[in-house]
Amino acid sequence: MAKTIEEINEKIRQGKVVVVTAEEIIDVVKEKGVKKAAMDVDVVTTGTFGPMCSSGACLNIGHSQPRIKLGGGTAYLNDVQAYTGLAAVDIYIGANALPDDDPRNRLYPGEFNYGGGHVIEELVAGKDIRLAATAYGTDCYPRKRLETWINMTDLNEAVLLNFRNAYQNYNIAVNLSDRMLYTYMGVLKPNLGNANYCSAGHLSPLLNDPHYKTIGIGTRIFLGGGMGYVAWHGTQHNPNVLRGDDGVPWRPAGTLAVIGDLKQMQPEWLRGISMLGYGCTMAVGIGVPIPILSDEILKYTVVTDADIFAPVVDYSEAYPQRKPEILGQVSYAQLKTGTIQIEGKEVPTASLSSYPRAVEIATTLKEWILTGKFLLTEPVAPLPGVESDVTTKPLRERPIE
Amino acid sequence: MSVSKRIVLHFSRRLADRPIIYRLVKDYNLEFNILKASVTPEKEGLMVLELTGEQEEYDKGIRYLTENGVRIQSLSQNVIRNEERCTHCGACITICPAAAFELESLTRRVTFYHERCLACGMCIKACPPRAMEVHF
After folding, report:
1. Rg of chain B over CA atoms, in angstroms?
2. Does the interface predicted TM-score (ipTM) exceed 0.85?
3. With an 8 Å Cβ cutoff, are B126 and A194 in contact?
4. Where are the domains of chain B?
């Protein structure tokens, strides 16, 4: 029996909706079977909380007196540079931005204790942020310098706008070399000393809707503790990869671009983080509701960690040199036991994505829907799927003579 | 008066070949219990000891170690976890040489076993949200 999103929303309004998390649905289907479960369950909630580098915030700081045009000038928030190639008082602060005087990797491995992600976390926490800006001055915007404290409540708009989040599966990072590596996948010990992965596995949004049947542009989501929307497919969205029989990609595949009101968000769900020797970034919490419109959609949400495989990639050579070879593939069920086998060696595993936080997000979203605070939206356009020609191209360099 | 303390010794590459601990026993009559050791010739070494003896001899022994270039760290340098910042991702688990972090299989939360901590400091900078802190 097929349902519509409007029918589910009506059930939400009447307080009759049945919602379970992507973890709970596995047992529900074991008990009831697909047909009965698809009839009974209206929404399955997913969640993920991990480092998502292509994230940042657009801020409109309001016009000073006299006016200043930051576009083409400079702007720093707590000494971290924000992008000013926009209109007079719109700026964008990226999660990976660093203070000019951060030593980076000159003192290897760099510590990267404070960056754009930390600025966003503090802003969301309601802290005062120091804005220091310079401009060249025009007839209509004469001011050339501005130094002031700003606060979330002072800003006209504060919008989280992330270009690539919620990766549908990801690499397992290892190190075949004989020296320690400091990567965006964490510290990798030499000679296969550890293996780091980064996905919520069977709770991860796009792994529960592998062919983007329900998640599309305009889908309302849990974003950073508030409500946001899927804005577009994320950068490097790459649906055409190796997939299992159930459609689940076994390689990094789909991604989401998301947008939401930063003023509603909470610092627990936007956390500035530091990757030793790599840089600053931000851990972002995302939860996506999946409306159970058919048996087929329900089947996708029943995916378990044992069904999802990820490639093992050497970050000493294959990754930095953009070589395609992998050292094998391993299921999330195996990863979560704490050790995997690579080239005959037992390698301890660690996650960079927080599973307990992912559970909390899926559970929070479930509560929001059950209490009528969160209605589902109909996507206005689908994300590009395997039938599309959307693919991730490498850069083909054309040397400039 | 007798004392017993837990300390971390850091050996430089040059010192790893010398019978440092033997001298503590022979010259200062100290009892030792090795809690953890990682000493390889031609490499930097680390040893965690419980050292017991008369206060005067203990102090002399410590002086002997420092004068010979062994860097000493007391285990009372407390490593604690800031529960508010920890996101329970698990990045610390494989970094810790003492297996002080464990993933609870049911909740998948990370438990920090303080008593196993050697205060080596590896987790401090490897923790992405910087939840691990050293307190003196």
Report:
1. 17
2. yes
3. no
4. 2-74, 79-135
Report the distance separating Cα B46 and Cα A133, nearest Å. Answer: 49
Q: How far out from the chain centre does Cα B128 lie?
A: 22
Angle between helices B55-67 and B20-28 (to 10 degrees): 150
Q: Which of A337, A353, A355 to mutate to test the interface with B (most CBs of B within 10 A)?
A: A355
Q: Tell me if domain B2-74 and domain B79-135 are identical in fold.
A: yes
Q: What's domain B79-135's architecture?
A: 2-Layer Sandwich (3.30)
Q: What class is the B2-74 domain?
A: alpha beta
pTM of the shown model: 0.88
**Token pair for residue A218?**
């305009």
pLDDT tens by residue, A165-207: 999 999 999 999 999 999 999 999 999 999 999 999 999 999 9
Is A140 an active-site residue? Answer: yes
B93, A350: Cβ pair inside 8 Å?
Answer: yes
Taking the C-alpha atoms of residue A31 and residue A297, their distance in angstroms, rounded to an integer, is: 18
Question: Are the beta carbons of A190 and A345 closer than 8 angstroms?
Answer: no
Q: Among all residues of chain B, which has the CA nearest to that of A338?
A: B103
Catalytic residue chosen out of the listed positions A53, A140, A198, A280: A140
Shortest alpha-carbon distance between residue B39 and chain A (Å): 18
pLDDT tens per residue across all 136 residues of chain B: 788 787 888 888 777 677 888 888 999 999 988 877 887 777 778 888 888 899 999 999 999 998 888 888 777 567 899 999 999 999 999 999 889 999 998 999 999 998 888 777 889 999 999 999 987 5
Query: DSSP assignment of A29-98, as one string?
Result: HHHH-HHHHHHH--EEE--EEEE-SB-EEEEE----SS-B--TTSEEEETTEEEB--SSTTEEEEETT--
